[in-house]
């Protein structure tokens, strides 16, 4: 069962989940995404919500609609996502994380990168 929170609209949460999968190479560039119906069934949500999530990915240039064939991952989608996610992390998340580490008195040598 997939859980949703009240922090963002469900379509945006689904778009974020699908984008994370694309970042992991699932499905690979040039391949089709599952159909709206399949995603609605998988996530137990309204097909219109799925369509809105997919349109969000289209708007971001990550997937494209091929008339009568479905949605396909665009070439370069993974690198585009990677750049965007890195930028977001460095600009938004890292400063907060760095401040928390400082408050907790944690130093770089206290962090074990290998067990991640």
TrEMBL record:
Signal peptide: none annotated. Keywords: DNA-binding, Transcription, Transcription regulation. It holds the Pfam family GntR. Residues 8-76 form the HTH gntR-type domain. One of its GO terms (molecular function) is DNA-binding transcription factor activity. Gene3D superfamilies: 6.10.250.1220, Winged helix-like DNA-binding domain superfamily/Winged helix DNA-binding domain. This is GntR family transcriptional regulator. It comes from Roseateles chitinivorans.
